[in-house]
Amino acid sequence: MIDRFLDKRNPREWLCLKRTVRFGETDAAGVVHFLELFRWCHETWEESLEKYGIALKDIFPTNEINTSQLDIALPVVHCEANYFQPLYVGDTINIELETEKINESSFVLRFKFKKNGEQIGSTNIKHVSINPITRKKCALSKQINLWLHESSSNF
């Protein structure tokens, strides 16, 4: 359940995250492998939801909850990435998440990757809410709607 104390919090608390590049995230050339940006995006989104106050088990299937027990599923229907500079082991980056609700059943997550204040990459990932049993579009959950609304506040 979402704590009401969040009403007074700054969205930066759950939308701006920091990470360090690890050896296992690099390729044979010693730079971050391209797919890592998408993995980091999903991890950033998950961490953002948790910091906001949404339990991941309420959004994603777990070993205790399968997809059919959830009210909605949020598959990715479009994603794209731009890479402006390589990243290496030990680089510290900031990941900034911006949200945009498209309509009652979809939203876009936009991520900016910054190193030393300079943008070095970006991604856009569009999700659509579907009924996990019928696989048809449906309205976003109350929790996700609230997170999107409060996350879209200028910070």
Q: What does this molecule look like?
A:
It catalyses: 1,4-dihydroxy-2-naphthoyl-CoA + H2O = 1,4-dihydroxy-2-naphthoate + CoA + H(+). Catalyzes the hydrolysis of 1,4-dihydroxy-2-naphthoyl-CoA (DHNA-CoA) to 1,4-dihydroxy-2-naphthoate (DHNA), a reaction involved in phylloquinone (vitamin K1) biosynthesis. One of its GO terms (biological process) is phylloquinone biosynthetic process. The active site is at residue 27. The chain is α+β, with helices and mostly antiparallel strands and 155 residues long. The chain has one domain: Hotdog Thioesterase (Thiol Ester Dehydrase, Chain A). Helices cover 21% and strands 30% of the residues. It has a five-stranded antiparallel sheet with strand order 1-3-4-5-2. The chain is globular, with a radius of gyration of 16 Å. Mean pLDDT is 88; it is low at 1-7.
